[in-house]
Amino acid sequence: MSAAPDPDDRELPRLQRLVWVLVAAVSILFGGSVVAVWLAESVEPVPTFSVAARGTTDRATQRGQQRLHIAGSGSNIPMTKALLAARYGHRHDRVVVHPSIGTGGGVRALRDGAVDVAMISRPLDPEEAEALVVIPWARVPVVVAVHPSVPVAGLATAELIEIYGGQRTTWSDGTPVVVLQRERGDSSHRAFDVRVPGFREVNEAAYQARRFRVLYHDVAMLDALESVEGAIGLVGSGVVPDASYRVLALDGRMPTPETVASGEYPFTKDLAFAMRGVPTGLARDFMTFIHGDEARRVVRAFGSVSLPEER
Amino acid sequence: MPFSSQHDGVQLRLRRYLAAQLIPLSILITVVVASSAPLAYSILGRRSLRVQATSTAEQIATIVREDAQERPGLWRYDTVKVLDHIRSYDVSPGIERIEIVDSQGALIDGHRGESKATGTVVWGTARLRLPSREDGVVWVAVSTAALRRDSVLLFLVFLVVGGALGAVMYRVPLLFVGRAERRISQLLERLHESQAALGAQAENLEDQVTQRSQELRRAYAELQKVSARAAALQEEERRAIARELHDSAGQSLTAIRLQLQLLSDRLVQEARPDLQTLSHRTMIMVDDCVEEIRRAVNRLGPAVLDDVGLRDAIFRVAEDLEEAAGIEVECVLDALEHLDASTETTCYRLVQEAMTNVARHAGASRLVIEIGRDPVRGGLAIRLEDDGVGIESAPRSGERRGLVGMSERVELLGGTLTIDRGVEGGTKIRVWLPEPMHKDEPAEDTGGST
Predict the structure, then answer these.
(1) Of B38, B60, B76, B62, nearest in space to B141 by CA
(2) Which residue of chain A is at minimal alpha-carbon distance from B111?
(3) Among A43, A140, B362, B363, which lies 20 to 30 A Cα-Cα from B158?
(4) Strand A50-51 to B106-107 pairing
(5) Which of B31, B110, B117 lies at the smallest CB-CB distance from A52?
(6) Are A71 and B39 within 8 A, CB to CB?
(7) pLDDT over 80 (residue B9)
(8) Confidence at residue B141, expressed as pLDDT on a 0 to 100 scale
(9) Which pLDDT band, with edges at 50, 70 and 90, does A286 fall under?
């Protein structure tokens, strides 16, 4: 046997070097892939969305005052249609009331010139109200409406708090309570937020917990109240004649023109029309009508009261 | 390498060697296991999120389309509320942004302005085709934060798993190899001990063999000496007998012959033919006897050696060969003095036999006889070379008997004899005889050790 040290012990065999190269290559490949995927998630391009320029075209003007387009809050629609029918007849085609797009949508459509008159059911922000002519015309009660199957005629505000808070889940006959909420910022809920202590909190908690079904159109709310047994919700259209839902008394008070006018029924909101300037033509004619006696009768029929014309 | 040579034998390094090979493989396993699962999860998860975003965008496009069908021309103004509602209530967790852009690429709810760039999202889109031909695009962004977090968690988990697997792959083979290494080391140690023992035994045997060889050589040398001495004594004895026969019996017979010759002459004078015939027959018998004695004396030992000495005896036979066969004989003779009887006789017989073979079988024309002291080994060196046909590989019987006889004589004296083909093709006989015992040296005690 040789006594000299084996020189191979000091030299890394070729195969071992190859193995280390392979390990390094695979590590780089996998590590690089992980980094690449990580970076890819970090550099996903965000679409560059542009902001639409405000339309300056007065479509109403372009249409030459042939038709009046009204759009906005759905709360206004029943009474507005009733007023228009009273003024121009049921088969009129001079004024078009568009489906609900909300107070904010109506204001934007008004500014864009897509409509002539915006229907408003909440106070406007200063930015919204800028350069607009706002004409309040009615104070409507925000009613607690239920499906006809609900076995109660009235609720206390405390009970209403319990229902929206989720503590009460069945009616007296055992049918489940189906609460129908409107979207955040809805004018009807806002009216209760202001006047019913604790309602804002339970309502918000219900939003957070997604406890109830949320509807974002008046039409959807009305349809649900008419079709869902045990349903309860807030409606800001006043007491709609011939409605399929029932209006409950709240704290023993029914919404009537008298209780609304006296303030005995405090849960109300004001309706208004907005225009880009002093109304002219057909718009002026309608604005004049809504402050007349016939219009007041129509408004009373909805359990509401007309607001005096502001000068 | 797994072995290393040390001054005390071979040292196993299997465990260390295997460890060096396993380290990179263990690292490879750890890296692959740790990164492959989270990588696949990230890629597939990202794809899933993109599908979710696209699916959500398509659902929103359907909702907006239905809404637009009810509000032709004004859908964009209601879409803001719809989007707010969807964002707040109807979207799955992880949906970070929902935007709708019109055909010009402008946001529907333009009052939002440019939104912050979140970065960690994937976007899905859906075409918004409206009855009023106011097409748009729905953009939905799904956050990848949860995916990234889960990927990191998965990486950590699989890093532990991969590390454990790599550690197992590293440790378990080393464990078994370590056991094997210990076993092999034990066996190697035993082998080393066995080799050492065998080496010692071999050395012992070698010493014994050497000792025995030396004893044998001494015995052989002694035997050769004894043989040479016996041959020398035998040769002297034979010469003595030959001289005795020659001096006594031969002389007497010669005298008898002379008397018989005188008697035969007297009988012729006295005319007694019968007695003359008897005398003549008796003389013939005496002649035969003399001749017989002469041959016997010659067989016992060449008388010529006693008469003229070895040198002259060789010269005489050389002359005889030249005269009889016409073969030129060259003699170079040296160191022939003071040789013992056996050596002289052997030299003379060698020359005689060589000359007999040359005359009868070689067909040579020239013979060289060279006798002298060997300058290298000492002793007597004899070279007999002719230019004949050369010795055959199967020599004739007569030739063979002669060669055997020469070889036996030489070996008896402890010498060597080689027969080769000569340079010019003939036969070359080389003989070496050990240091001859001189005539004047006393006889050795033959009772020496064997």
Answers:
(1) B60
(2) A51
(3) A43
(4) parallel
(5) B110
(6) no
(7) no
(8) 86
(9) very high
Contact B28 A27 (CB under 8 A): yes
Angle value at C-alpha B176, between B174 and B180, nearest 5 degrees: 110
Q: Is the pLDDT of residue B443 over 50?
A: no
- Which residues are within 8 A (CB) of A179 and not within 5 positions of it... i.e. 6 or more apart? A163, A164, A206, A211, A212, A213, A231, A232, A233
Q: Pick the residue from chain A with its C-alpha nearest to B149.
A: A38
pLDDT at A85 over 60: yes
- Report chain A residues whose CB lies below 8 A from the CB of B68: none
Residue type, B162: G
Distance, CA of B376 to CA of B379 (rounded, Å): 9
- By the 8 A CB rule, do A206 and A179 touch? yes
CA distances from A165 to A187, A207, A304, B239 (A): 20, 10, 29, 159
pLDDT > 90: percent of chain A: 47
Which residues are CB-neighbours of B317 under 8 A, at least 6 positions away? B351, B352, B355
Q: Could A6 and B147 be called an inter-chain contact, meaning their C-beta atoms sit closer than 8 Å?
A: no
In B, minimum Cα distance to A182 occurs at B85
DSSP B70-121: HSTTTHHHHHHHHHHHIIIIISPTTEEEEEEE-TTSEETTGGG-SPP---SE
CB atoms within 10 A of CB B30: 23
d(CA B414, CA B431): 11
**Can you list the alpha helix ranges (DSSP code H) found in B272-396?**
273-300, 303-325, 341-357
Report if pTM > 0.80: no
Mutual angle of helices B14-70 and A14-42, in 10-degree steps: 20
At residue A199, φ and ψ (nearest 5 deg) are: -70, -40
User: Average pLDDT in the B386-405 region?
Assistant: 69
Chain B residues within an 8 Å CB radius of A214: 85, 88-89
Three-state secondary structure call for residue A232: strand
State the average pLDDT over residues A57-61. Answer: 44
pLDDT-based confidence at residue B107 (cuts at 50, 70, 90): confident
Min Cα separation B118/chain A (Å): 8
For the segment B314-343, the average pLDDT, to the nearest whole number, is 86
pLDDT at residue number B110:
44
Query: Which of A11, A101, A121 is best to mutate for the B interface (most B CBs within 10 A)?
Result: A101
CA–CA gap between residue B290 and residue A38 (Å, rounded): 136
pLDDT at B91: 60
**Nearest-CB residue to B121 (from A1, A16, A44):** A44
> Do A50 and B106 make contact, defined as CB atoms within 8 angstroms?
yes
Mean pLDDT of B184-191: 90
Q: Grade residue A57 by pLDDT with cuts at 50, 70 and 90.
A: very low
A216 to B85: CB separation less than 8 angstroms, yes or no = yes
* Closest-CA residue to A233 (of A307, A156, A144): A144
Q: To probe the interface with A, which of B76, B78, B85, B97 has the most A CB atoms within 10 Å?
A: B78
Predicted confidence (pLDDT) per residue in B129-156, tens digit: 887 666 888 888 888 888 888 988 999 9
Reduced to 3 states (helix: H, G, I; strand: E, B; else coil), residue A244 is: coil
The residue of chain B with its CA nearest to that of A185 is B81
Amino acid at B310: L
What residues in A contact B195, CB-CB < 8 Å? none
Compare A194 and B131 and report the one with higher pLDDT.
Answer: A194
Asked whether the predicted pLDDT for residue A2 surpasses 70, the reply is no
B31:A38 CB<8 A: no
What is the distance in angstroms between the Cα of A170 and the nearest Cα belonging to chain B?
A: 24
How big is the A-B interface in CB pairs under 8 Å? 166
Tell me which chain B residue has its CA closest to the CA of residue A100: B78
| B249-290 residue pLDDT tens | 888 888 898 999 999 889 888 888 888 889 889 989 998 888
